[in-house]
Amino acid sequence: QQQVKQSPQSLIVQKGGIPIINCAYENTAFDYFPWYQQFPGKGPALLIAIRPDVSEKKEGRFTISFNKSAKQFSLHIMDSQPGDSATYFCAASIEGNQFYFGTGTSLTVIP
Amino acid sequence: EPEVTQTPSHQVTQMGQEVILRCVPISNHLYFYWYRQILGQKVEFLVSFYNNEISEKSEIFDDQFSVERPDGSNFTLKIRSTKLEDSAMYFCASSERGVGELFFGEGSRLTVL
Q1: Are A40 and A85 in contact (CB under 8 A)?
Q2: Which of A95, A98, A101 sits opposite B48 (nearest CB)?
Q3: How many alpha carbons fall within 13 Å on the CB side of residue A45?
Q4: Where are the domains of chain A?
Q5: Which CATH class is domain A4-110?
Q6: What is the pLDDT of residues B10-45, one digit of tens each?
Q7: What is the pLDDT of residues B48-99, one digit of tens each?
Q8: B32 located within any domain
Q9: What CA–CA distances, in Å, run from A23 to A2, A44, B39, B104?
């Protein structure tokens, strides 16, 4: 059973565009929703995270939108840059327990 | 900035051989994890470790796998008899309190021939 479903699998945008990556989850007990960024040959690194008591969180050019009733959350990257080209993973967890990762989205930002 | 370090970065082994992957978590962290990522696929949880014992493990973490914290700094993953399908990138991660951010190492790529 896939706990977290992520889409799209890949995404290509022009520099300055706003890529949006979506995730959906099943378990309503999840209470921590991070997004991780992974460059080739590197481990995932935390980008931004949200808890279900807020509907939106913004850090720099990265925004998470969270819809608790729909059990969905998404990552928006404002003014995307070629350096944002990476694989992005959403995840969900119940505090203190394992993280369930989505299948990843390969983002390419064209200069 | 403190980081999780892993060795080796790449290991090639023959099927049936034993492999030990090593990790040095961030020094004040108490919760340790192993995840794996088969090429091009999602990151999958293997095991979590706290207070010198396994706190949670996945179906992937069967009897061929074991973890150990042999001293105050290292955290190891042993694969007893490697199979072709064990070929993957193995990531160690640590967390200060078991909640919130996981800090991942750069991974150890295991290739089983």
Answers
A1: no
A2: A98
A3: 10
A4: 4-110
A5: mainly beta
A6: 999 999 999 999 999 999 899 999 999 998 888 999
A7: 999 899 999 999 999 999 999 988 789 999 999 999 999 999 999 999 887 7
A8: yes
A9: 12, 17, 21, 21
Residue B58: its chain A contacts at CB < 8 A?
98
- Answer whether residue B109 is part of any domain: no
Range of the domain at B42: 5-96
In the block, residue with structure tokens 């990138």: B89
Number of neighbouring beta carbons within 10 Å of residue A47: 20
Question: In which residue are the tokens 């992957």 written?
Answer: B21
Q: What is the CATH number of the domain that holds B76?
A: 2.60.40.10
Mutant choice from A99, A103, A105 vs B, greatest count of B C-beta within 10 A: A99
Cβ under 8 Å to B: A residues 3-62:
32, 34, 36, 41-46, 49
